[in-house]
Amino acid sequence: MKVVLHIWRQSKKSTQQNFAQDGKMVRYELDHVSADMSFLEMLDVLNEQLTKKGEEPVAFDHDCREGICGSCGVMIDGQPHGPQRGTTTCQLHMRSFKDGAEIYIEPWRAAAFPVVRDLVVDRASFDRVVQSGAFISVNTGAAQDANAIPVPKPDADKAFDAATCIGCGACVAACKNASAMLFVGAKVSHFVHLPQGRVERELRAKNLVAAMDKEGFGNCTNQYECEAACPKEIPVRVIADMNREYLRSKIKEEPPSNKRVGGDG
Amino acid sequence: MKLDSNIPGGPIQEKWDTRKFELKLVNPANKRKYKVLVVGSGLAGASAAATLAELGYQVECFCFQDSPRRAHSIAAQGGINAAKNYRNDGDSIWRLFYDTVKGGDFRAREANVYRLAQCSVNIIDQAVASGVPFARDYGGMLDNRSFGGAQVSRTFYARGQTGQQLLLGAYAGLSRQIGLGTVKMFSRTEMLDVVLVDGHAKGIVVRDLVTGEVRSHAGDAVVLATGGYGNVFYLSTNAKGCNVTATWRAYKRGAGFANPCYTQIHPTCIPVSGDHQSKLTLMSESLRNDGRVWVPKAKGDKRKAHEIPDGERDYYLERKYPSFGNLAPRDIASRAAMQVCDDGRGIGDTGLGVYLDFRDSIARLGKDAIAARYGNLFHMYAKITAEDPYSQPMRIFPAVHYTMGGLWVDYNLQSSIPGLFVLGEANFSDHGANRLGASALMQGLADGYFVIPYTIGGYLAGQKAGAVKSDHPEFGKVAGEVAAMTKKLLSINGKRTVDDFHKTLGKIMWSKCGMARNEAGLQQALREIPALREEFWKDVKVLGSDATMNQSLEKAGRVADFLEFGELMCRDALERRESCGGHFREEWQDEGEAKRDDEKFCHAAVWEYKGQNQAPVRNTEPLDFENVHLAVRSYK
């Protein structure tokens, strides 16, 4: 099959002032595209052709190409990861497009995800949010036997559903407010459904929300675009979990202990 | 090259305790004066970086991906072994040790494997404490399943995403330390060389993949956790970015490279669909718990699967290996698949495929039960092939998956360069000539959480903290060499793309050094690879500059290293004149089963670099089997 591609080309890191001036859409025609190719394999073919012609290939993030590392992700015809639900860009196949299709490919657009080059964005803001509290504060060696605390299966399953987030950023890209609440909610929901994660639940909720705001992600206005775009189909109930946990942390807020820490010995 | 395996004395059960007591300690107040550089952020790298920082060391961690969470451990599907014996089915540390030594076809180091089995139980505890949502039963206890090469259920899992959940657990611990300021993380940063000062590894030279800047980082020790080299075949189940560069460049600075010919071909991957194919996708070994592998009995039978009655199907694994059946180890299952395809009984358009059929399990357990166990794998399969595995069998074929060879390390995981430690898939020690399923995650985390935190202290205690700074002249020299290689790649401006060379190399490796190898083929590969390498340095086309993000340039450096490494791999395969595990030499077989030569080859082959255009030297470390006695591996 044959496709016409319109791809965002940008050679330098974005300035955040006026993204339209940082790059432009460029049109490419591509022939002999097989329906069995993945979307990224189609871009590989384009890049081979561009290189042979002496044009610099299109930069895009990708690694595992099996939908789990979260590296890839572009806007395809205005939809994060393209038209198939529950599918990352690398798992999307060209059989989802018609012969002769015109396809528009752009990077994620969000203030917290500056474009690095072409379709590559900088998602370090996600890492910084995680560093603020999306963990259990346990050191190696301190753990008791794994079966010492039973976890009801429904809780374990709910924790797992949230923990499948791959951190690709599609939720942010889909949201008109560039909100990261599905991502942050997934972290909160994952830990709060496990007994091990409940010890520091208040601190975690507070810190994660503060970090998310600091990075410049927007708020949720209940459009649920994030859930529709999520390649792992993480439900918006995780946002409810986050809001509940945040509220709970505010209600439970108490002044810190005035006792000296660390003992007097 | 002096190879001292440095195994502690005493009975095997006491060796690790003995070593932990023997190792010198670094006083808690002094730990913060030492800096450790950890390269790689997969299970081994992330768990090591986090744990070392918890202990008080200054840590710098590096990964080429845009976030440490994306390292390829994330893609491991099936599970992680541990000798918990929660199933009361006769498991023990000794049995896990025994199965792993036997599974590796008696080419692993016994003492390391025993320690691995010992640490396995702590890994599960640690993972659960850090919030890894393993599968549980209705009583709230952890669930298990079976994997190849074992007759007990000792594999812990999180649906088909165990690697993801374990890596996110290690990443969470790493992130906590980054937040606390004890680990400095450098993402999108690729290590391009190791720097030796007075024979000790004291730093690395890296390239910032966004700005192109070449930088030096000095430390008191260097830890490589950079994964395997399966992408030398171009097509493999590895992520596109996986490469041999870090370990290869360490080899060229004097680290021994052990058993590069040991590669694992995984029996259950989705078959190749065309020339555009950029990678292969694994279908977890766990599927063989409930899926039955078969091909038609008759050659060239082109009927659809459901039209072939049971009597005309050959469930060849069940037939040939009745006691392990569909759960025969990977090397054996892969070879068996290749044999039926060579026999003309392969399925699909290309004849390169076999069926993995869930019909009987769905009839026995119901579709919902199968979906609960493998839902995400079935979903992935359907997306790639546009076929529904609930109603028709999966088509599968073997593909390169894991590499057992790697940098040689002693019992303390130190390479032949003092101060250079190697963890996880990047080292060679635990899996011998064949890795059992669900053992890679176990090894990565054992090395990172529980081994390196002890052994690195023993090394650092004898070193003056912060003795070498990055302004040492040796850093300038190495950084200059790295920058010169980059410039050279950009200056060639030939006609062939990097991928084109990589694909050509991959075809040579797969046909001559893949599932079956022979003297003539390997000799031919040893002529073709240097010729291809020469052409690469004359005719490769890499556009753009070294001062921006340049993905072609990144790839070019990695492929340049594969073009050197592939030759060493073939050389190793040629010199190992026996068959063992994943290394199958056609000349040494017993009706299709690998035939070892313990008289001549009961050793690790450790290659020593002697300079550009010089033949490397093959050294050996003898392997002693005092606890699991050498025997012909049988799964019948």
Give me some keywords for this one.
heterodimer, A: alpha+beta, Fumarate Reductase Iron-sulfur Protein, Chain B, domain 2, 5-stranded mixed beta sheet, two-stranded antiparallel sheet, 8 helices, 32% helix, B: 636 residues, Flavocytochrome C3, Chain A, domain 1, Methane Monooxygenase Hydroxylase, Chain G, domain 1, 5-stranded parallel beta sheet, 21 strands, 37% helix
Give the rounded overall mean pLDDT of chain B. 96
Described by strand count, sense and barrel closure, the largest sheet of chain B is: 5 strands, parallel
CATH superfamily of the largest domain in chain A: Alpha-helical ferredoxin
The class by helix and strand makeup of chain B works out as alpha+beta
Q: Categorize the overall geometry of chain B.
A: globular
Number of strands of chain A: 7
3D architecture notes:
The complex is a heterodimer of chains A (265) and B (636). Chain A is an alpha+beta fold. Chain A has helices spanning 39-53, 124-131, 153-163, 170-174, 181-192, 201-214, 225-229, 237-251, and strands at residues 3-9, 24-30, 75-76, 79-80, 102-106, 115-117, 120-121. The model of chain B has no long low-confidence stretch (mean pLDDT 96). Chain B is built from 17 helices and 21 strands. In chain B, helix 4 (93-103) crosses helix 5 and helix 10 (359-365) packs antiparallel against helix 11. Classes of the chains: A alpha+beta (265), B alpha+beta (636). At the A-B interface, helix 1, helix 2 and helix 3 of A face helix 3, helix 5, helix 6, helix 11 and helix 12 of B.
